[in-house]
Amino acid sequence: MHTRQSQNPIEAAARIVEDDKAGWSKVRWASWRLFQADQFEAAQRGFERLVATGHGDVDVVTALQQLYSDRGEPGNAAALVDRYLGERGADLTLQERLDWLTARFDAVTADSSVPERSAEALQLLEAAAACGPGGWSVVLEPDRRAVIEATMQVPTVALSAFEQYMYAPAETGLPAEAVARLEALGCRQPDDWDLSRSAERLLHAVGEPEAAYRVEACRRAAMRHATAATTSAEPEPELPLRGMVVTIAGGHPALRSLARRDLKAIGVRSVREIPSAWEATRVGRSVQATLAGSDVIVVIARQIAHTTSDQVRGAATRLGLAVVTAETASVASIRRAVERFAVPTGAC
């Protein structure tokens, strides 16, 4: 009799998880009761019900992600984290976001059905950079670093990754390594005008003019020796940027600093900044005052708190100002967003 009674709560919990009419508070209780009793398969079904209906809090998602990982289901683990970041990402702290992106990166790495991991690698690097000096330990872990390095066979991925390395503490060796590898990349691909020029610009922005000049020399030499039939190099177009005032919303201080130098180098008159709420609390009036007089506001979508984004977009609407989005947390993405505004699609 004692044994039968001790099993009753587990049996009751299992029935609740399978009952489509059970309330969500009961499903949550039952799922945790099963989890604590090591009834992981049944607990997983309960947690999945909660997540699928929007009733999964951070503890539920964390437990379900661990179950997927323990049960060898990395694809489900990655999809779960993607969903959670899509729903809650803008409200997470920088450390929380880094933790979740690390979990997703590890899940994708463990999934042999995913042949290409560059997007996850770059997002992990961006999150580490935003988190500050303490965020780089996850990147420097040997197995993760090896996977990140493997994605750099694609030159455009390498360019973006080297920029993120620039934001690491000097003692990691990554910034110095990035300078050398950016120069090598720019000189190794001199006939790829956009790539070589982007490497040169980034080297100028981080205060490495000699390396930038060497990349420029490589590119010019390639242009001199290329024939009209084989070269894809084109002169840099003149964009109507001179005199513009650009406001950058979000990102981290080092990124905004590099973007400021880069934008001024292509003619932007003034660059203003609105840090995310992660850095400092701002009231709506101060955001509006910063935006007033701007030609365009660039929102760094991956590195801005939901509250800050709402403040910026609300103030921009009141002022009648244009808002564009930098899809990645990089100098090149910010520059492209400004250039898209300056020369809209379809313009001559």
CA radius of gyration is 25 Å
Mean pLDDT: 89
Instruction: Decide which structural class fits the backbone.
Output: mainly alpha
The gross shape turns out to be: globular
| Total number of beta strands | 4
Q: Numbering strands along the chain, what is their spatial order in the largest sheet?
A: 2-1-3-4
The largest sheet is: 4 strands, parallel
Q: What percent of residues adopt helix (DSSP H or I)?
A: 55-70%
Written as H for each helix and E for each strand, in order along the chain, the element string is HHHHHHHHHHHHHEHEHEHEH
Distance between the termini: 85 Å
The amount of beta strand, in percent, is: 5-15%
Number of helices: 17
Show unreliable segments: 1-6, 228-233
Task: Give an account of the 3D structure.
- This protein is 63% helix and 6% strand.
- The chain has a four-stranded parallel β-sheet, with helices on both faces.
- It is built from 17 helices and four strands.
- Strand 1, helix 14 (253-265) and strand 2 (270-274) form a beta-alpha-beta unit.
- It is mostly helical.
